[in-house]
Amino acid sequence: MAKPQKIWLSPPHMGDNEQKYIQQAFEDNWIAPVGPSIIAFEKDLELYLGNRVHVAALNSGTAALHLGLIMLGIQPGDEVFCQSFTFSASANPILYAGAIPVFIDSEPESWSMCPDCLETALKTKAQKGKLPKAIIVVHLYGMPCKIKDIMYIAGKYGVPVLEDSAEALGSRYGGEYCGTFGDIGILSFNGNKIITTSGGGALITKRKEFKERAVHLATQAKKDKPYYEHDEIGYNYRMSNIAAAIGRGQMEVLDTYIAKRRKNHAAYADFFSATQQISVLEEYSLDCYSNFWLTTITVNPSEDSIVPENIRVKLSSENIESRPLWKPMHLQPVFKDAEYVGGDVAEKLFNTGLCLPSGSGLTDTEKERIFSTLREFLF
Ligand SMILES: *Cc1c(COP(=O)(O)O)cnc(C)c1O
Questions:
Q1: Where is the signal peptide (predicted)?
Q2: How far apart are the C-alpha atoms of 111 and 106, rounded to whole Å?
Q3: Where is average pLDDT lowest: 4-8, 255-259, 293-297, 305-309?
Q4: Is residue 77's pLDDT more than 70?
Q5: Domain around 268
């Protein structure tokens, strides 16, 4: 029997107008990392995020994090704090900059950086007279982290915050958009994110001169001269006009897609409410509004031998993709020598959790296929 069609975790989902904007770029021959769609996409994002911010469109979220660290003045040998429970792209740019990562544990409500662990780590570093030069905090799976507490603690010690909002475009805390709290914020438009430009990212800042500097650094740091003159090292990090054209179309459907992902989440929450064995990550306070980029669950310890890996394998046998939660950075072979502050919150989540198919294009029929597969297995 032919396998049923694959249900992906979070596949690209095009709206109606992306091709129109691409067509325009072809007609005008703006097939380059420069052009009107880049400017228009930046404007769309600035308007969406509340118009108090400036946005620089870049070719990945990772590039945005790297430029963010450079703009915060990170030098080789500096320490940078980073949430341990995240995708490696949050941490790798610390190494690109020659700096030293110190990983911080999560707390169980948001799954993101634990404010108490952060405070402990900052206190210890302050006593040694060596504060970190930046703190990278992440809104994981679209769930807003405890950003106000983190900004407050970071502010007490005068350490800037780089807010990795790659998974949280459209999520809000206390009514304000994720990505706009930190000294610098970043977004990703990779293929699996809530909207995509095929590959892309953005840097968010409240300071106009920061945006100008980000664009300058992202375009090889060329001075305004007829010949190319450089007084610092630049990067080739600017977004392509074609990618930005896709982004303009995606911005038109963003809020509809968030509504669809939130509906997916509500359907999963309803489904799992029938069992004590599974917990679904929920908004933990009235201040939280999650885009529910991915619906994530944890399996509660029980006599039954249900472990997330069994659920993953079962779903996979029906051609349904699911994935374990991020493996914490302090448990990664590549970061085995890095300093870590915290307990076992992130590690426990990694051992018990799973991400479920959450695309904005997920149909009711597909959801029913997922549920009937799980029903067989769980009940
Ligand atoms: C996707 C992602 C990134 C990296 O974005 P890219 O555009 O893929 O470079 C960074 N941090 C987190 C938390 C992500 O999920």
A1: none
A2: 5
A3: 305-309
A4: yes
A5: 255-378
Ligand 1 atom with the shortest distance to the CA of 62? 9
Closest-CA residue, ligand 1 atom 14, reads 166
User: Using a 6 Å cutoff on CB, does residue 190 contact ligand 1?
Assistant: yes
Beta-carbon count within 10 A of 184 CB: 26
Q: Helices (DSSP H) in 146-206: which residue ranges?
A: 147-157
- 340/361 same-domain check: yes
121 & 195 share domain:
yes
Site to probe by mutation for ligand 1, drawn from 163, 188, 204 as the one with most ligand atoms within 8 Å of Cβ, is 188
Q: How far is the CA of 51 from the centre of ligand 1 (A)?
A: 24
If one residue of 67, 87, 94, 186 were mutated to test the ligand 1 pocket, choosing by the most ligand atoms within 8 A of its CB, it would be 87
- Give mean pLDDT, residues 6-21: 97
Atom of ligand 1 minimally distant from the CA of 90 = 11
328-353 mean pLDDT: 97
Check pocket membership of 68 for ligand 1, CB cut-off 6 A.
no
User: In terms of pTM, does the model score above 0.85?
Assistant: yes
At residue 201, φ and ψ (nearest 5 deg) are -160, 180
Mean per-residue pLDDT for 62-81? 98
Indicate the residue among 253, 270, 290 that finishes a domain.
253
**Structural domains in the chain (count):** 2
Q: Is there a domain that residue 188 lies in? A: yes
Does 142 share its domain with 127?
yes
Q: What is the pLDDT of residue 306?
A: 82
Same domain, 220 and 241: yes
- Render the burial of 321-360: b for 16+ CB within 10 Å, e for the rest: bbbebbbbbbeeeebeebebbbeebbbebbbbbbbbbbbb
Q: Is 90 in the pocket of ligand 1 (CB under 6 A)?
A: yes
Q: Using 50, 70 and 90 to split pLDDT, how confident is the model at 376? A: confident
- Looking at the structure, tell me whether residues 173 and 102 fall in a common domain: yes
DSSP annotation of 238 reads B
> Is residue 163 lining ligand 1, measured as CB closer than 6 Å?
no
Within 120-232, strands assigned E span: 134-138, 161-164, 172-173, 176-177, 184-188, 201-205
Q: Is the pLDDT assigned to residue 133 strictly greater than 80?
A: yes
**Tens digit of pLDDT for each residue in 17-66?**
999 999 999 999 999 999 999 999 999 999 999 968 999 999 999 999 99
What is the rounded CA–CA span in Å between residue 192 and residue 166? 11
